[in-house]
Design brief:
disordered N terminus, 2 domains, five-stranded antiparallel beta sheet, Neuraminidase
Length: about 450
């Protein structure tokens, strides 16, 4: 009996010692703001979205609520931490090559090694049915299109379609409610739209061709997407006296682009390349002036599709359909030239941007990694130009039209014209030949 009591006492004593030791270790494991954070290594060194990564070091503490981890600028969910280890999940699309930073209190440190993020892309159809010959509103499963041509997306992930012919219309795709709605039958063909700097107003250029050359269509979430037919206002005599220069849109305007530098809407006159801008709030327009001269962005008579670079907010790109090339123009300096492609040479070739070939370029966007992504319509592909200057085919088989969802190696398009990108970097495609709206989910 005494032996059993003694044994029980010893077990309790050892347990108490262990408990005290754990409590002491817990106390010493707390983050100490008076000591530096020391970094070791992390594992794995590469992975995709939601990869479990272990970061090693010291003075991380044991309270995950005060620990912040970033892959480039994207916050990573912190699962837990104890002395010397942080367990995180990699965020979605932080960039191809990532700096991993740890922030605790006022301390911020960055691992010297880089994490390589591996993306996976899947093509799916949102709505529409290949082979249809009429437009129909309704649920995603019911809706059909005839010529879904160009796209933009607002900050609520509503997709706006410039639908050409049977009918000419602006269509809204509500992803939250899974519905397709005709907002407005336009009196003139709608071209490539843009979302204003707030992400709440949609502006759609009327094609032009004489009567409607100065007109556009406006849709505002604050007005419950009621349609307005607007006119770009010419400068008054007072405006001209104050230095503004009047404009002339020579027949057609194929695209609007919102400038992050000045929040103005920019367009390129189709037949002479004159660059024009207007304020979406006041509708007042003017000819863009650079160094005292009227700005001309590629004087050739060609369709063109514009986008500004968010990381270089004065840099404007134009995909010129008839010339099978991409041009650039800096609205502050006037620097301009060919960015990619062989002018006048239709074809397909990946590689260095100056050697690459395109065929019938249409709408463009910039993705999370600042790649210039382009609908290469006649090649039935989605292409991209990397910041390093290489052209790559993202999805589609060059020269092969068709309809197939799936991974990039299998997916097929038929004459894709429209592209848009939302605030989570999902890319949407107006697959014009298939009469579908599709998306590239990139993780």
């Amino acid at each position: 009996m005494k032996k059993n009591v003694y044994l029980l006492f010893m077990i309790m004593f050892v347990s108490l010692l262990g408990s005290c030791k754990e409590e002491a270790e817990s106390k010493t494991a707390a983050y100490d703001p008076n000591k530096p954070i020391q970094l070791g290594s992390f594992t794995p060194e590469t992975g995709g979205m939601a990869t479990r990564a272990i970061l090693s070091g010291s003075n991380f503490g044991n309270d995950p609520s005060i620990v912040k981890v970033y892959f480039n600028e994207k916050p990573a969910p912190v699962v837990g931490c104890n002395e010397g280890k942080i367990l995180v999940l990699t965020p979605r699309q932080p960039g191809d090559t990532c700096n991993i930073s740890v922030v605790i209190g006022k301390d911020s440190v960055v691992y010297p090694a880089k994490f390589i993020y591996v993306t996976s892309t899947v093509v799916t159809t949102i709505t529409g049915q290949p082979g249809t010959t009429a437009f129909r509103e309704g649920s995603f499963s019911e809706a059909t299109f005839t010529n879904p041509t160009y796209l933009t997306v607002d900050n609520e992930k509503n997709i706006f379609v410039a639908h050409q012919n049977s009918p000419n219309a602006v269509i809204m795709i509500n992803q939250q409610n899974s519905t397709v709605t005709n907002l407005f039958n336009t009196p003139n063909k709608p071209n490539a739209p843009a979302t204003d700097i707030t992400g709440k107003m949609i502006v759609v250029p009327a094609d032009g061709g004489g009567t409607y050359k100065d007109y556009y269509f406006e849709f505002d979430s604050d007005a419950e997407w009621a349609s307005r037919t607007r006119m770009i206002l010419h400068p008054s005599a007072e405006d001209i006296a104050n230095g503004k220069v009047d404009f002339n849109i020579n027949q057609f305007k194929h695209s609007f682009a919102i400038c992050p530098y000045d929040s103005m809407v920019y367009l390129r006159s189709n037949r002479d390349g004159h660059l024009i801008k207007f304020d979406p709030k006041t509708r007042k327009g003017e000819h863009v002036m650079v160094n005292g001269k009227q700005a001309i962005f590629n004087s050739s008579n060609t369709d063109s599709y514009l986008v500004f670079d968010p990381k270089k907010p004065t840099m404007l790109y134009a995909a010129c359909t008839g010339q099978h090339a991409v041009y650039y123009f800096d609205i502050l300096t006037g620097e301009t030239g060919i960015y990619a492609g062989k002018v006048g040479q239709a074809g397909w070739r990946d590689g260095k941007k100056e050697d690459a070939q395109f065929n019938g370029l249409r709408q463009m966007i910039l993705d999370v990694n600042n790649n210039l992504v382009i609908a290469d319509a006649n090649n039935h592909c989605i292409r991209r130009i990397t910041p390093e200057g290489f052209v790559e085919t993202v999805v589609g088989v060059p020269g092969k039209s068709g309809y197939m969802d799936g991974n990039p190696e299998d997916a097929l398009f038929n004459d894709p014209w429209g592209l848009a990108i939302d605030n989570e970097y999902t890319i949407y495609v107006a697959d014009r030949g298939n009469n579908c709206i599709r998306k590239l989910t990139i993780q």
